[in-house]
Every structure is written in structure tokens, then in C-alpha cells.
Write a sequence for this structure.
């Protein structure tokens, strides 16, 4: 049975502490959560399991996962050495009507304002159900981190506003990149083209780079 939503940050963190050290398989079994045979086609399974167990309510809405608490949940696959193994999806990138948008009011900032990070062992040689859940912790960006994120956001959103979306690649941004987010290349959406006319392009998403999340882990665990 899905856990009811936590009423306070303390209650949420109590649940997080209770699952630390368990494997994903043990957790799924305890909550009778449906587990796929093969996670290649079920990339989101880990996140769904953790949301289910912790009582997250937002689903795919652009609000933080624990709406009333204002906390966003991010699972973070890490290596044996405690380093992030992949970039972290934050939110879908708006591609239309972007003029006049500000960092302060952006979905990205709203999502990253207060994050519950949950490191999970993600090494390829460990099957998903045997991957261990680490110690979750709450994080809020420092003034310096917020400024880094704002710089990357503004630089890339300006290119979108100018119809230069094709110039955006994963190399841009010191700590946050924009890159395609679609199940396959047949899924397209509208964006502003070079001459201000609409063009069809792949949906994009904002992703935190591993150097940024690695730094967060380092500060938290003094690695």
C-alpha cells in the first residue's frame, strides 16, 4: 500500500532514515511494489518505488514532489566511490513564450529550492534489485550555487528566446545543461526558429551535471 504523504519534514526524514541500507529489492518486497523483470525498459522504476514508499504526491506536475513541504525528491545513482554516475533531470525546458521569464520564477529554481537527495548504488555490475539505498539528506543551494545555476539558465534560455536552439548542446553550462528529453526521435514539439517562425524540434530538459551533484555529495559526506 502506498505510504500516505508525510505531514512534516521530520516525518519525511524519519522514513528516509528507515530505508537507508536496504536494497531496492527488499524495499519493493516490503511494500509489494510491482517489479519489472528488466529495468532497461523501465528506467523510471527506482524513482517510482522511492516516491511510493516516501509518500510523494506531485507526480508529473511542475511542483516539488512533496508539495506541502516544498521538497523535491531526487534519486542519485552513485559509484562504489560515491561519485554520481549520471546527470540529474530537473525539469522540462520551456521552448515557447520564454521572453520575460526570470530565473527567480523558473520551474528549475522552484524544483531546486529544497531537494531531498537519495544516493543509491548504481554500478552496472549490481543488478537493480540488489542496489543499496544510501543516506538521504536535505539540501538547499548556497548563494554561490544559486548564482552558478542562474548563469547557466540565463545563458541557455537566451539562446532559445533568440531562436538559436540548435546551438545548444550538452557542452554548454558549467553546472547545468539542456539536452533532448524524449523517448524517441519521433516525438517533436514547437520551438522558435532562427527567423522567429515556429520550428519542430525534440523536447528538451534541464539536467544537473555530475560535477555539480558530485560537489553536493562531497560537502555532505566530506568525501
Amino acid at each position: 500500500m502506498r505510504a500516505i504523504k508525510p505531514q512534516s519534514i521530520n516525518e519525511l526524514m524519519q522514513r528516509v532514515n528507515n530505508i537507508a541500507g536496504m536494497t531496492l529489492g527488499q524495499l519493493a518486497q516490503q511494500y509489494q511494489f510491482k517489479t519489472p523483470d528488466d529495468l532497461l525498459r523501465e528506467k523510471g522504476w527506482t524513482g517510482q518505488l522511492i516516491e511510493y514508499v516516501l509518500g510523494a504526491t506531485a507526480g508529473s506536475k511542475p511542483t516539488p514532489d512533496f508539495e506541502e513541504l516544498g521538497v523535491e525528491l531526487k534519486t542519485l545513482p552513485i559509484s562504489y566511490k560515491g561519485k554520481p554516475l549520471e546527470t540529474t533531470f530537473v525539469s522540462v525546458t520551456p521552448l515557447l513564450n520564454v521572453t520575460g521569464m526570470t530565473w527567480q520564477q523558473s520551474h528549475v529554481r522552484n524544483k531546486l529550492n529544497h531537494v531531498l537527495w537519495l544516493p543509491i548504488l548504481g554500478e552496472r555490475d549490481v543488478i537493480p534489485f540488489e542496489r543499496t539505498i544510501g543516506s538521504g539528506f536535505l539540501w538547499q543551494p548556497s548563494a554561490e550555487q544559486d548564482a552558478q545555476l542562474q548563469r547557466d539558465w540565463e545563458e541557455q534560455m537566451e539562446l532559445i528566446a533568440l531562436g538559436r536552439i540548435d546551438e545548444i548542446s550538452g557542452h554548454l553550462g558549467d553546472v547545468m545543461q539542456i539536452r533532448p528529453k524524449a523517448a524517441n526521435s519521433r516525438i517533436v514539439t514547437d520551438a522558435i526558429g532562427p527567423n522567429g517562425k515556429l520550428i519542430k524540434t525534440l523536447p528538451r530538459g534541464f539536467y544537473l551535471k555530475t560535477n555539480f551533484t558530485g560537489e553536493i555529495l562531497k560537502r555532505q559526506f566530506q568525501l
User: Anything to note?
Assistant: The first strand starts at residue 72 and ends at 78. The mean pLDDT is 91. The beta strands are 72-78, 88-92, 115-121, 137-139, 176-180, 189-192, 198-201, 204-208. The first helix runs from residue 9 to 19.
